[in-house]
């Protein structure tokens, strides 16, 4: 009879879905939900980072203030070993003021903001405007000898299209089902994406250098969005490679009007008055780290992270003050409910993400792996991630084996709807189990698809479990991303509370689980970039 009962129990266990066999601590989740919903500090944390500190461009005084404040706040909440870890970067920069006018054929103020890491004008600069749309180095020859003394509009003007009415969206069941369905890769998407990113970042340097050599007095870029939203991102922070001429990012509508006037035969003149400051005393920038220690002398490690830096035109609320506040709130919750984890729970609030994962990549190099730098001249304008990515031999440091998982949040302020599994099949039943208590909050999707553009990538690229959550888009991509309206008033309390609770639960279960999270096979060497002539 006992054998029959045992066989029946075994059959019943095998019939259960795989995720049901992964332990989930519902008592701990009750405590996390109570603390996170009823005594949350996530909005106050975000308010301080955005309304009080404001923009946090890598290398700037604002970023250093945010580093110091987050370090002290995490210490105040009871985390230990709070510290700043540095990485070589380049000049810091702030843009204090910009006044841009069209002075002919009529005088009118234009909406424009300084391009990052471009110099100020040292007074009012006025000149004739020329439209020279330059999309690649192949276009340089066309404009050689024609730009001296000119203010150059360098962006093309696309054909007019009706605007989309989908400004603010949440994922529905159909969208989540598409996200969950695995996309079979063809070719080598990693290599294609890598090469595109290198060309994109390098062109900022190459274009400005060409304009300076040709004697242009300023450059103007068109914002990619309409409705007077302005993006002014640029990347010329490299020591010895900084921009020589002033530049501004201009609203789509005002830029388009200038181009139309020029095409109709009118002479257009503009005046530009920009104040900008460079900071060269310290070529380093910093990330903030702190932890809740695990048990034993050398405990294993679970991490959560988000990038603390932002661009300068807004306050970096959705990108990525929201992720920073969520990660900080998650560990505050765990400390508040008295968690004593088996594994160390470590927080990484990264600097330099916007310029290429500087902080998270430096953490990898300092703590987890040693690998050679790619000497290719093609990478001269790139950061540490691009210079070390895919390089072999990859020598594992002692902490590599003790590392369990990294969880990241960086797709705006929308609530969590699930998690990307990054091709790790063994992780799916675990994450399904961990999300099941949060189905009532809309989080239930696990996909084997990978996602890019966040600080989980440096971890995944060296073979460690690194994950980014699936989030509701809201108006992140349509309005906020890198624009001047990325401010506190565009984030939503309910979403950030939900995300904080789920992040806390994932950290708790990863820290208390009997085994480390399963890993994919270690990466193998393959040629990602070769030093060859371009164009």
List its salient traits.
eight-stranded mixed sheet; 16 helices; Glucose Oxidase, domain 1; single chain; globular; alpha/beta; 535 residues; disordered N terminus; disordered C terminus; 2 domains; Aminopeptidase
Care to describe what's here?
This protein is of the alpha/beta class and 535 residues long. It folds into 2 domains: 302 residues, Aminopeptidase; 188 residues, 3-Layer(bba) Sandwich (Glucose Oxidase, domain 1), CATH 3.50.30. The protein is built from 16 helices and 18 strands. Strands 1-10-12-11-15-18-16-17 form an 8-stranded mixed beta sheet, sandwiched between helices. Strand 16, helix 13 and strand 17 form a beta-alpha-beta unit. The longest helix has 25 residues. The radius of gyration is 25 Å and the shape is globular. The chain starts with a helix and ends in a 23-residue tail after the last helix.
Structural class: alpha/beta
Unreliable spans are: 1-16, 531-535
CATH class wording of the largest domain: Alpha Beta
> Could you estimate the helical fraction of the residues in percent?
25-40%
CATH superfamily of the largest domain: Zn peptidases
As a whole number of angstroms, the C-alpha radius of gyration is 25 Å
Strand content: 15-25%
For the largest beta-sheet, the strand count, sense and barrel status come to: 8 strands, mixed
Task: Give the quaternary arrangement of the chains.
Answer: single chain
Mean pLDDT comes to 94
What is the tally of helical segments? 16
Number of domains: 2
Overall body shape: globular
**Judging by the overall fold, what is the CATH architecture of the largest domain?**
3-Layer(aba) Sandwich
CATH topology of the largest domain: Aminopeptidase
**DSSP, total strands:** 18
Strand order in the largest sheet: 1-10-12-11-15-18-16-17
Q: How many angstroms does the end-to-end distance come to?
A: 78 Å
């Amino acid at each position: 009879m006992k054998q029959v009962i045992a066989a029946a129990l075994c059959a019943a266990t095998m019939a259960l879905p795989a995720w049901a066999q992964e332990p989930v601590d519902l008592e701990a989740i009750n405590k996390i939900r109570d603390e996170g919903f009823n005594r949350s500090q996530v909005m106050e944390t975000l308010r301080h980072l955005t309304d009080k500190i404001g923009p946090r461009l890598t290398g700037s005084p604002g970023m250093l203030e945010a580093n110091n404040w987050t370090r002290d706040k995490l210490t105040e909440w009871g985390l230990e070993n709070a510290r700043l870890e540095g990485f070589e970067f380049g000049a810091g920069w702030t843009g204090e003021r910009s006044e841009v006018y069209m002075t002919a054929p009529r005088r009118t103020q234009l909406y424009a903001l300084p391009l990052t890491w471009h110099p100020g004008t040292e007074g009012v600069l006025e000149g004739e405007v020329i439209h020279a749309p330059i999309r690649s180095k192949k276009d340089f020859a066309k404009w050689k000898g024609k730009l001296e003394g000119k203010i150059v509009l360098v962006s093309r003007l696309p054909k007019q299209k009706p605007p989309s009415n989908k400004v603010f969206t949440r994922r529905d069941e159909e969208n989540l089902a598409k996200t969950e369905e695995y996309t079979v890769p063809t070719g080598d998407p990693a290599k294609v994406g890598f090469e595109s990113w290198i060309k994109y970042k390098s062109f900022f340097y190459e274009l400005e250098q060409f304009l300076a050599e040709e004697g242009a007095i300023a450059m103007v870029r068109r914002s990619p969005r309409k409705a007077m939203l302005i993006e002014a991102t640029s990347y010329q922070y490299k020591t010895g490679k900084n921009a020589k001429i002033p530049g501004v990012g201009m609203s789509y509508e005002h830029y388009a009007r200038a181009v139309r006037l020029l095409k109709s035969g009118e002479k257009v003149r503009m005046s530009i008055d920009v104040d900008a400051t460079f900071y060269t005393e310290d070529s380093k920038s910093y990330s903030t780290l702190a932890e809740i220690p695990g048990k034993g002398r050398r405990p294993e490690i679970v991490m959560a992270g988000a990038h603390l830096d932002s661009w300068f035109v807004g306050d970096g609320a959705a990108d990525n003050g929201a992720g920073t506040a969520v990660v900080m709130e998650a560990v505050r919750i765990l400390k508040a409910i008295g968690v004593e984890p088996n594994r160390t729970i470590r927080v990484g609030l990264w600097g330099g993400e916007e310029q290429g994962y500087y902080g998270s990549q430096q953490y990898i190099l300092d703590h987890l792996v040693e690998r050679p730098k790619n000497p290719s001249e093609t990478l001269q304008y790139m950061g540490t991630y691009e210079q070390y990515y895919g390089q072999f031999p990859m020598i594992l440091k002692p902490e590599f084996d003790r590392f369990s998982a990294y969880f990241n949040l960086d797709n705006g302020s929308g609530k969590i709807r699930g998690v990307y599994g990054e091709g790790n099949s063994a992780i799916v039943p675990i994450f399904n189990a961990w999300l099941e208590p949060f189905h009532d909050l809309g989080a239930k999707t696990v996909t084997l698809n990978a996602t890019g553009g966040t600080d989980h990538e440096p971890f995944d690229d060296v073979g460690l479990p690194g994950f980014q959550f699936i989030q509701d888009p809201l108006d992140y991509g349509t309005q906020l991303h890198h624009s001047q309206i990325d401010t506190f008033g565009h984030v939503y309390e309910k979403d950030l509370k939900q995300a904080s609770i789920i992040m806390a639960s994932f950290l708790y279960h990863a820290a208390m689980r009997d085994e480390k999270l399963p890993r994919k096979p270690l990466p193998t060497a393959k040629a990602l970039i070769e030093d060859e002539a371009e164009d």
